[in-house]
From TrEMBL:
Chain ranges of the FMN hydroxy acid dehydrogenase domain: 1-381
Similarity comment text for this entry: Belongs to the FMN-dependent alpha-hydroxy acid dehydrogenase family.
Residue positions of the active site: H276 (proton acceptor)
SUPFAM superfamilies from the UniProt entry: FMN-linked oxidoreductases
Name recorded for this polypeptide: L-lactate dehydrogenase (Cytochrome)
One CC-aspect GO term: plasma membrane
InterPro entries xrefs: Aldolase_TIM, Alpha-hydoxy_acid_DH_FMN, FMN-dep_DH, FMN_HAD, FMN_hydac_DH_AS
Binding positions (FMN): 78-80, 107, 128, 130, 156, 252, 274, 307-311, 330-331
Keyword Flavoprotein included in the entry's annotation: yes
Record Pfam families: FMN_dh (PF01070)
Cofactor(s) essential for the protein: FMN
Organism of provenance: Sedimentitalea nanhaiensis
Length: 387
C-alpha cells in the first residue's frame, strides 16, 4: 500500500494506472496550456501570514455552500467521462463525497446516468448542465434531476464552444475508447483499470444515449455534441433556464466582474469563478487572480465559489481568505479516483482537509468563516496592471 501524503502522490499513481488517453484528457489544458499552468503558479505566488500563541483548540472547517452544510467548503466539480477514469467512477466519487460530507456534482457528460448515481449514492448531489439548443432535452434533463432529488443545478457557461486540447485529438479520445493497436497496447499494461471496465456495463454517456433525439448509440454522440451546444446562449436564456429549474442554481465559468454582476442580477444563488481548469480560453487569467476583483464587484450580492488549480488545502484557504465562500476541485479528486477508486477520492478529500485544518491553525484561525485577507501576503500588483 503506497504512502499518500499529498495530491501529487495520487497523480503519480493515477498516471501509472489509467490508460494514457484518459490521463491526457484530464491532465491537459487548451492550446498552449498557459492558463492551465497559471492556475497553479498563481496560487503559489500568494503567501500565508503565520501567527503564534493563538489558542488553536476546537477548530472547525465545517461551513455551508448554498445553504447546505458541508464538512469543509470543497465540492467535487463536474468532470465529464469520470466513469472512464475508473469503472463506475461517478458512483464511487459520489459515495466518497457523501461519506465525507461534501457536495458531488454530476456532469451532463458522465458515464453513469443521473438515475444510476441517485440509486447508488446515499446523499443528494448537484447536477451540471451544459446549455443546449434542444429545449425538450433540457426540460427532460431537469425533470430527471428533480426526480433524482438533485439539490442544485450547476449551469456551465464557459463552454458554448469547445476549447481545443491537442492531445485529445491526437489520442482519438472517445467513450468507449477507440481500439487502435497503440491504445490496446497501452491498455494491456493497465490491468487494474481493464478488469474494472470488463466488470461494468457503464461505458457510454448515460445521460445522453437513449435520451437525446437521434442519439441511440455511442457512434452518433460525436455529431450530437457538435450540433447540440447552444451558440446563441445569452443572459435571457440563462434567466429562462433558472426559471425552468425552479430550485438552487449555480452559474459556473464566470471570470469577469461584469459577468459576475449579471449572474447576481438574473437571480442565481451562486457563481463559480472558473476558467474550466484551463481547458477553454487559453490566455485567460487564472481564477485566483480575478477573484479579488469579482469580490469587489459583487460583494454579498451573490455567493462566490472558485475552482481551477486547487491542489491542496493551502489553495483552498487562499481562495476562502480572498472572499470565496466555497471551492471546487476537479483534477485533485480525479487523480484519487484513477489511482485507487472510491478510497482514492476519500484520500484526496482527507489530504485537503488535513492541509486546510493545519494551515488554518498555523495562521492563527479556528474557523473557516474567520479567514480573510488578513491571513495572506499578496503581491502588491497580484491582480495585474492590465489595460
Ligand atoms: C477531465 C475534465 C473534465 C471536465 N468536464 C467538465 C464537465 O463535463 N462540465 C463542466 O462544467 N466542467 C468540466 N470540467 C471542469 C471542472 O468542472 C472544473 O472547472 C476544473 O476541473 C477545475 O480545475 P482543476 O481541475 O484544476 O481543479 C472538467 C475538467 C476536467 C479536468
Amino acid at each position: 500500500m503506497p504512502v499518500i501524503t499529498n495530491i501529487e502522490d495520487l497523480r503519480r499513481i493515477y498516471e501509472r494506472r489509467v490508460p494514457r488517453m484518459f490521463y491526457d484528457y484530464a491532465e491537459t489544458g487548451s492550446w498552449t496550456e498557459q492558463t492551465f499552468r497559471d492556475n497553479s503558479s498563481d496560487f503559489a505566488d500568494i503567501r500565508l501570514r503565520q501567527r503564534v500563541a493563538v489558542d488553536m483548540t476546537g477548530r472547525s472547517t465545517a461551513s455551508q455552500m448554498i445553504g447546505q452544510d458541508v464538512a469543509m467548503p470543497v465540492a467535487l466539480a463536474p468532470v465529464g467521462l469520470t466513469g472512464m477514469q475508473c469503472a463506475d467512477g461517478e458512483i464511487k466519487a459520489a459515495r466518497a463525497a457523501a461519506a465525507f460530507g461534501v457536495p458531488f456534482t454530476l456532469s451532463t457528460l458522465s458515464i453513469c446516468s443521473i438515475e444510476d448515481v441517485a440509486e447508488h449514492s446515499p446523499a443528494p448531489f448537484w447536477f451540471q448542465v451544459y446549455t443546449l439548443k434542444d429545449d425538450d432535452f433540457m426540460r427532460r434533463l431537469f425533470e430527471r434531476a428533480r426526480a433524482a432529488n438533485c439539490s442544485a443545478i450547476v449551469i456551465t457557461l464557459d463552454l458554448q464552444i469547445g476549447g481545443q486540447r491537442h492531445k485529445d485529438i491526437k489520442n482519438g479520445l472517445s467513450a468507449p475508447p477507440k481500439l487502435t493497436a497503440k491504445s490496446v497496447a497501452n491498455m494491456m499494461t493497465k490491468w487494474r483499470w481493464g478488469m474494472g471496465m470488463l466488470g461494468t456495463k457503464r461505458r457510454f454517456f448515460g445521460n445522453v444515449i437513449g435520451h437525446a433525439k437521434g442519439v441511440s448509440d455511442p457512434g452518433s454522440l460525436t455529431s450530437w455534441t457538435q450540433e447540440a451546444f447552444d451558440h446563441a446562449l445569452d443572459w435571457d436564456r440563462v434567466r429562462q433556464l433558472i426559471e425552468m429549474w425552479g430550485g438552487k442554481v449555480i452559474l459556473k465559468g464566470i471570470l469577469d466582474a461584469e459577468d459576475a454582476k449579471m449572474a447576481a442580477r438574473v437571480g442565481a444563488d451562486a457563481i463559480v469563478v472558473s476558467n474550466h481548469g484551463g481547458r477553454q480560453l487559453d490566455g485567460a487569467l487564472s481564477s485566483i487572480r480575478v477573484l479579488p476583483e469579482i469580490m469587489d464587484a459583487v460583494g454579498d450580492d451573490i455567493e462566490v465559489h472558485l475552482d481551477s488549480g486547487i491542489r491542496s488545502g493551502q489553495d483552498v484557504l487562499k481562495a476562502l481568505a480572498l472572499g470565496a465562500k466555497g471551492t471546487m476541485i476537479g483534477r485533485a479528486f480525479v487523480y484519487g479516483l484513477g489511482a485507487m477508486g472510491q478510497q482514492g477520492v476519500t484520500t484526496a478529500l482527507e489530504v485537503i482537509h488535513k492541509e486546510l485544518d493545519t494551515t488554518m491553525a498555523l495562521c492563527g484561525e479556528k474557523n473557516v468563516a474567520n479567514l480573510g485577507r488578513h491571513n495572506l501576503l499578496v503581491p502588491r500588483n497580484f491582480g495585474g496592471d492590465w489595460v
